Amino acid sequence: MSEQARKTAQTLEYLTGFGNEHSSEAVPGALPLGRNSPQRAALGLYAEQLSGSAFTEPRRHNRRSWLYRIRPSAAHPAFTRVDNGALRTGPFTETVPDPNRLRWNPLPDPAPGTDFLAGLWTLGGNGDATQRTGMAVHLYSANADMTDRVFSDSDGELLIVPERGGLLLRTELGLLSAGPGEVALIPRGVRFRVELLDGDARGYVCENYGRPFELPDLGPIGANGLAAARDFRAPVAAYEDSERPTEVVNKFCGNLWAATYDHSPLDVVAWHGTHVPYVYDLRKFNVIGSISYDHPDPSIFTVLTSPSDTPGLAGVDFVVFAPRWLVGEDTFRPPYFHRNVMSEYMGLIEGAYDAKAEGFVPGGGSLHNMMSAHGPDRETFDRASAAELKPQKIDDGLAFMFETRWPITATAQAAGADHLQRGYDDVWQGLERHFRA
Ligand SMILES: O=C(O)Cc1cc(O)ccc1O
Ligand SMILES: [Fe+2]
């Protein structure tokens, strides 16, 4: 399967641009012109609107897509509860919020036959999915394709951050592929199936219950910089005309529900709109930094932001630490010691991260909750304090952060995991006093 999927992934076409009113048809003439709901849709298709915002939200935030499909989504039997596996949802109450610094190794390998959905494992989160506030941090580890089943998340959008292995995402709006170094976003409610391009796959997911991710304002940076809108890629319409029974699994207010359709629900022949999946290559990120002195705050590395109801205070920011030059004069160049009112979950896609000498590994992650003291470990502090300050290219890794205004509460499985690093505090041991009055 993955050989065929790999070929498919290599030849995918995309539409470009973030937030566009895109349109696409897999069969010429499938997309109605001049109206959304003709009395009889073209080619005998059914018209269906999928809303990602309330009908009445300001135009800037309004999101919806019109789908023209072989069968309407409404034609299905009752959904019934299925096992939630290792998926958890806000409110997170299994443990108390922990002020300690926490760090995990990668997830253990999953049992054979674990697909993307079965391989999702929740680390923690905040907010309340029923209130559409907050977020969850999940990891996934999979070794099998999803077959004859699709997933959709009513609780939020899914920002998928592959760390190992490429993914072919077959969505209602078409196909996307995303591998390590890229991120993919599946909007709230959009059905999709994941096939593995390289056998095994591992990565991270930010489930955002709040306002959909948008590009951050650029302020004095100007009209260009950070992630460029034109580098975001949306799929072109591609449909499955299959009468095979397909299980549709829906995450709804924290629980998984399933119904078996008598056909593939990935049967959208044409669509137009703004509620669309997309993929973005993090290597295209235009990194802005200091060209004089001091280490800037990591908000300049924001790829996407989900604003909360308070201006400037994100429900969650997605931040990337991409290859860049460091040139600061008389500057401690790695991330500084800090205590942050925001809460920081960090993951590593490849290589190393400049604040940690070891222990922070690809597929692992760290959680530095609100106000917890963290920053360079002792080895990094010693090295960077003595380093010769010539221009230096940091290009040995790709790290990211989900930074949120609310503390992240770990799930019971994360707080008690064997792969939780028990001695993490020790990385800050041995920072001697050097004070001389
Ligand atoms: O804790 C971290 O490593 C993330 C981080 C990076 C940085 O460059 C400045 C502040 C910050 O929280
Ligand atoms: Fe930090």
Element layout with pairings:
Blueprint: H1 2-10, E1 14-16, E2 22-25, E3 46-51, E4 64-69, E5 80-82, E6 102-104, E7 120-128, E8 133-142, E9 149-153, E10 157-164, E11 167-171, E12 174-178, E13 182-186, E14 192-196, E15 201-208, E16 233-235, E17 246-252, E18 255-261, E19 268-273, E20 278-281, E21 302-307, E22 314-321, E23 324-326, E24 338-339, E25 343-351, E26 365-368, E27 373-374, H2 378-386, E28 392-394, E29 397-404, E30 409-410, H3 412-415
Parallel strand pairs: 9-17
Antiparallel strand pairs: 1-16, 2-19, 3-4, 4-19, 5-18, 6-26, 7-8, 7-30, 8-15, 10-13, 10-15, 11-12, 11-14, 13-20, 17-18, 21-22, 22-29, 23-28, 24-27, 25-26, 25-29
The protein binds 2-(3,6-dihydroxyphenyl)acetic acid and fe (ii) ion.
Descriptors:
437 residues; mainly beta; Jelly Rolls; 2 domains; six-stranded antiparallel beta sheet; 30 strands; binds 2-(3,6-dihydroxyphenyl)acetic acid; binds fe (ii) ion; metal-binding; homogentisate 1,2-dioxygenase activity; RmlC-like_jellyroll; dioxygenase; oxidoreductase
